[in-house]
Write a structure and sequence with these properties.
28% helix; alpha+beta; 303 residues; D-amino Acid Aminotransferase, Chain A, domain 1
Amino acid sequence: MRLTGKGAQTPQDDHRNDGVLIWLNGRLVPRAQATVSIFDAGFGLGDGVWEGIRYVDGRFVFLDDHLGRLEAGAKAIALDIGLSRDGVREALQQTIDANGMTDGVHIRLMVTRGEKTTIHQDPRNALGRPTIAIVAEHKLPDPQVKRDGLALATTPVRCSPPDMFDMRLNSHSRLNLIQALLPAIAAGAQEALMLDPHGFVSSCNSTNLFFVSGGTVLTSTGRYCFNGITRQKVLDLCAAHGIPLRQADFTLAEAYASEEAFVTGTFGGITPVSRLDGRPFGGAGRPVTERLCTLYEALTRSS
């Protein structure tokens, strides 16, 4: 069964991507030739870490934040990337230059444990050479999604604590998040709202959630949600511009009673939410969301 519709990560179509060159283990190859072994740990086991990075006006956006998160994730799973931070920067720039890109680019930087002697979860049978792939695409959010806002549905799949499956680790394995999204799609939504193990509002399946009540921006404590760079930028913008903010445990009832809601992520930046479990947001406008959108876009172009 093929699932259709638009989600939080839906881009505009851009046929320039048909001919992009992919950086794969030090070589630039056409996308049709960008292949890895079926014995690769990422393919067989989801054993690896990744980053999504934007390239705007000739600059990588928040690159040090992304590379710091990549290095921390690799360290957490005892994965040697095999490149210094400067080496990763150089590979990213080579990919951008080879494709003649200047703006409106989204990059997926992926590192796996590499090829293994056999497909088995034990990391000790890896051959010791990581697989590094960089996919740079002309990729902008669908303007209809940004304009209309997302419909969310609460999913029965919960966010997991760090001692089970750490949501803050950008792991190649996303099956738990796909499982969370499927019931939301069946309910006619575009993104799934996931509760934490205690039943409080936590995260969406691919983005982090904020809502606005009485002019105050509300969001989870962060214990069970993604370690989002965009999320942190929004927290910083609230502090810098005097926008009231509370990080705490919030119930679904409190989310339903809010006037505005939005999600954050590297690709979409800040995207408004129009409905949660059929309940509408933004009936009186989205003043706080729109202000934060403006501040965030200015920040991405000045970073």
